Amino acid sequence: MLVTVGSARAAAAEWVRRHAGREPWFRGAYFSGSTVGLPEDAELPVGSDVDVMIVRAEAEPPPKLGKFMYRGALLEVTYLSWPRLASVEEVLRSYHLAAGLRVDTIIADPSGELRALQRQVARHFADPQWVRLRCAGARTGIENNLRAIDPAAPWRDQVTSWLFGTGVTTHVLLVAALRNPTVRLRYLRARDVLVDYGHADLYVELLYLLGCAEMTPQRVQHHVADLARTFDAAAAAFKTPYRFSSDITAAARPIAIDGSRELIRTGCHREAVFWIVATFGRCHTILAADAPDVQRALAPAFDAIVADLGITSSDDLLRRAEAVTQFLPRLWETTEAILAANPDISAP
Questions:
Q1: What is the pLDDT of residues 291-320, one digit of tens each?
Q2: I need a labelling partner for 176 at 20 to 30 A (CA). Which of 142, 152, 275, 333 fits?
Q3: How many beta carbons lie within 10 A of that of residue 334, not counting itself?
């Protein structure tokens, strides 16, 4: 069924009115994520959901609701605490928060405070000091993830720490270019930035750090087929609460499986690898808790894609993490070049 961006937004706004807007803790809501900026009449892309941020009064809001279907649209609802947004300076420092509030996508704002904050963020979003701080924050995210690799942890957790540490290299570049630091499509969007700014040669280095520079479409398609089986088993087995469990449901399946196949179909098979591996890891977390026998039976498929990235042991992960660390000065040099060339960054 064809779902337009406009109809999906309308469904999301209705959900906010009916299910959040009447609650005493409700402070506001806004759209975020990769669909922001798309025209109302555009078809919602394969593998996309509509991100809705719900602002709550509590300092410690409950976990996100995650992904679910509502009136034909796949929504992802995340809770934010108002205290976290109370300082415009802290929002401008955070590359995820600032990106979500750089344009007015507010759905509801009972007090008017959220819109006042949004206007301040929009006014200062491209100030050099804040852009640079956000780039530095992304770089710190790389270092923190890589330091989190624990050889004593389950294999899936080790791989995930390395994967996200490596993958945040793309976010440093996206932040410098003032573009959305998307999650699933981060490599595709980083490629666009590097081409646009004349640094296409760096993109191959990013793919080599991930390990998929020479992977063929056929091999990635094979891994997606294995992921589909693992995904379905994990979705069926899920019982134990898990922060990413809503990513592994029948409603969310089009993002991980159909979205990956669409990337392969369009010649972007290497750009699909990051999210395939991330989803494998989340599936195995669910299976380890709720169906350990199934998890052991399906582990070879996860091991196979990680091996195709050149990793078969904790020592391999630590060596690859060190390679990313050694790459950071080159990444920062390119980031500085993008910052200097970006016409949308305000003059100091």
A1: 999 999 999 999 999 999 999 999 999 999
A2: 275
A3: 20
